[in-house]
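Researcher: Please predict.
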Amino acid sequence: MKLGGLELIRVEIPFRAAIATAAGVHRRRSLLFVRIETDEGEGWGECAAMSEGTLVDPTTDQVERAIIERGVNRIIESSAARSGHLPDGIEVAQLFSSSPVDRFIASVMEMAVIDAELRSRGESLGASLGVGPGYRSVPVGAAFGIPPDADLDHLRRAVRAAVARGSMRVRIKIAPGWDVHVVAALRSEHPDLSIQVDANGSFRLDAPIDDPARADRLAELVDFGVVCVEQPLAPGDLVAHHLLRARLGPGVPICLDESLSSPQRVRHAIRDRSLDIACLKPGRLGGMVATRQAHAECTAAGVMAFVGGFFEAGLGRCANLALAAHLAQVATGLVGDVSDPCDYLEVDPCGYPPVQQGWVEVSGEPGVGQPPDQGVLDNLGAQRRWFPATYT
């Protein structure tokens, strides 16, 4: 496929409700799309970076600036070296460095090129990944932040509604002082529900014994059958997670999220025996190819994994959905972040397959997912920048 140019499109969409975590509050979602135009059609990618960033991830502003400064040129120059032809989708990530910003650029550019390839062949992402019968429907979970004023009744009502819609797993944000008693309340009401808790690195191994942030307190979760406690300690300290894992024992498995900030970090976490479960986020790891490689290493080491998300719109979430179905076919994992974006975004410009009784089916339409609706983008006041591919 010959490259004609790239368009960068950005819109701002409010969350239906603010999403509070131990690391901060997310009130709006900056969506950044890349559209690649070729002589055989177009391809779309969605950037996973969020407005405020995270403990280890860049902000949307940082990624957008880097795409303009060097990301676009890297794709154009690579195509120029191939007589104007785009690099293959599976090669795109190799054009970028291993910095956090570059991994997010690699992910969105890879998605756009793969989407263009699939559309030119009339093939869906699920089909290209070999998702077979029995794996084309994926169970859906729901994620909940810390409610305003730490209102436990508010959370209980939200979880009840998610369970009524068919959610088979809930992922609850916790923080020091908002932790064990919250899980106890939910477990008393939902004895069979899969509950994960996500601390976003807010506990400390060396905190005083009476400090609410003391990580040893998480051992009390064993009485409530949690699937895991996600990212209990600071992301950079894999050794501390190894030590905490020994203290908590098998009854409270440790899942790492922010610690797995690159494929190399996944390997180091496995080597250091710092985790029982891995939350693999394609945007953070550098794309679908990198995520599949990280998953293969987890599988070989006996570490369960699931596909995590960044509250994407429908396009990025469709990519996660097909990838989650493929990984489930390779090895048994946990319910991933594949809920309908309309559950948390005021508007999803892309659309998403319908969730029915807690399950969602991988799209069979050509491409990664539905591209954004141009009318919806215009109504949202989308900002656009066009970068023509000029070859000398």
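Model: The chain has two domains: 3-122+371-385, 126-361.
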